[in-house]
Amino acid sequence: MPAPSQQQIIDALRPVEDPELHRSIVDLGMVRSVEIGRDGRVQVAVALTVPGCPLRNEIQSRVTLAVTALDGVTGVGIDFGVMSDEERAKVREIMGGAGHGAAGHSHAPGQAHGHAEGKAVPFNQPGNKTRPLLISSGKGGVGKSSVTVNLAVALAQQGYKVGVVDADIYGYSIPRMLGTDRDPVVIDDMLVPPEANGVTCISIGYFVPEGQAVIWRGPMLHKALEQFLADVFWDDPDFLLIDMPPGTGDIALSLSQYLPRAEVYVVTTPQPAAQKVARLSAAMAQKVNLSVKGIIENMSWFAGDDGKHYEIFGAGGGQELADELGVPLLGQLPLVQELREGGDDGHPIVAAHPDSEAAKCFQEIARRIAVDMKPKKVFSAALKIN
Ligand SMILES: Nc1ncnc2c1ncn2[C@@H]1O[C@H](COP(=O)(O)OP(=O)(O)OP(=O)(O)O)[C@@H](O)[C@H]1O
Ligand SMILES: [Mg+2]
Questions:
Q1: DSSP 3-state of 186
Q2: Are strands 31-36 and 41-48 parallel, antiparallel or unpaired?
Q3: Is the CB of 299 under 6 A from ligand 1?
């Protein structure tokens, strides 16, 4: 069996995607050279986008698999190198999308200086198809982050492309809850978000040393959020879920400017006190011209071993709030230990126990948001009259 030609090997490598950028490694310029020995042994030189690329092993196995599949190949060796600045800039150009970038130095979000001004947030451009979903509540600890993560995973399981922005700058929790095990990768001035459970996410948690508090003023928060939206390579997701911090204020205001089409989903627990605070969050949304589309009630009951539902946090708050706002109550989530555990160890219940009652409830809420709540008209800035 004769060894394949160089062209045949490159053709075989073309469908191999970079696991982070989801583009052909050949098109990205990662395949630097291919050599074929007389004995059928193939040596491929691969340039990684960044040194210490966390997905090097994955790339290695994808390349090996693709080349070994060719007739006449007796073995595959890979030499890894790292891209030069020019090569990275080219990758950045190919990826287009995020930032539409004036060149700038990469740095942690929120850093006031050195930021390339005037970057476009792709989600407020005419024709953009991403639906931004703001998961908010006004009150702390009602389960916004848990709902964000599980809804995101449920939507991904239903075949949608999903990103999550952790907008809780002071009390970030998404990386831990979603279970991402690596930091974003910086290519030129583009941040490539890590992925876990089929969902990509960005959080300030990736940029501050563990255990250190973030103490920022309003303008810094605004800048950080802008970078989360404009500098991150989101790659046109169907949904971008935003985990809101507790309370109302600065962040909601900033987000309403960047994401004027955002749909607000309010999480509440069933008792009147929580419902009252949740109502404030709805009022806040209206003040910044965003509309509340639905209510999600969390911790609605605890099912005991006896099968009985114990309504630990009262009953009826979600439905009452929904009626008051004239929006649907999209679901009632039970209080379950596995949900809390899944949040603590990065295995969202929707992924870890997809057949559980809570997971099914998340799946149904995801379906209702994706299908029933789908905006009827396509947004067009040109048609907006005001
Ligand atoms: N339905 C549930 N069953 C069991 N535990 C839950 C449930 N919902 C949330 N929790 C747990 O309650 C705690 C608070 O939830 P979470 O962090 O999602 O709330 P939050 O509204 O985002 O809080 P914060 O306002 O601090 O951001 C977490 O430990 C979470 O695992
Ligand atoms: Mg939270």
A1: strand
A2: antiparallel
A3: yes
